[in-house]
Amino acid sequence: QVQLVESGGGQVQPGGSLRLSCAASGRTFRILPMGWFRQAPEKEREFVASIASSGMTTFYADSIKGRFTISRDNGKNTVFLQMNSLKPEDTADYYCAVKYGTSYIKAADFGSWGQGTQVTVSS
């Protein structure tokens, strides 16, 4: 079972940037597609971005396209989410997870969820 630990969250002003990291245990990381999701208070968890095991294919939610970039370093068992031009509506708890199913965007096809890292965008 893969264990995931997110880090890098915090409070930032609108227009600012943050880089989230998700460190994975286990030697199988390099073959696992990964994803980032977020959940704002009183809202459902929503897809943010996902990446194939090779890192060559990525998917993004329309709401963050052009502002966020997902990447991975298989040598360090880590997946990243670079978040630029942050907006107040990006405020949420951010989670990384492993894609076990067929979809790159449906939360139901992901598992081994991390504990999350909080991102707050406010002035």
Secondary structure blueprint with pairings:
Layout: E1 4-7, E2 10-12, E3 18-24, E4 34-39, E5 46-51, E6 58-60, E7 68-73, E8 78-83, E9 92-99, E10 110-111, E11 117-121
Q: Quick one: biggest sheet?
A: 7 strands, mixed
What's the total number of strands?
A: 11
Distance between the termini: 40 Å
Structural class by SSE content: mainly beta
Structural description of this entry:
- The chain is an all-beta fold and 123 residues long.
- Helices cover 0% and strands 46% of the residues.
- The protein has no helices and eleven strands.
- β5 (46-51) and β6 form a beta hairpin.
- The chain is globular, with a radius of gyration of 13 Å.
- The termini are far apart.
List keywords for this structure.
four-stranded antiparallel sheet; 123 residues; 0% helix; mainly beta
Task: Report a brief summary of the structure.
The protein is mainly β. It contains no helices and eleven strands.
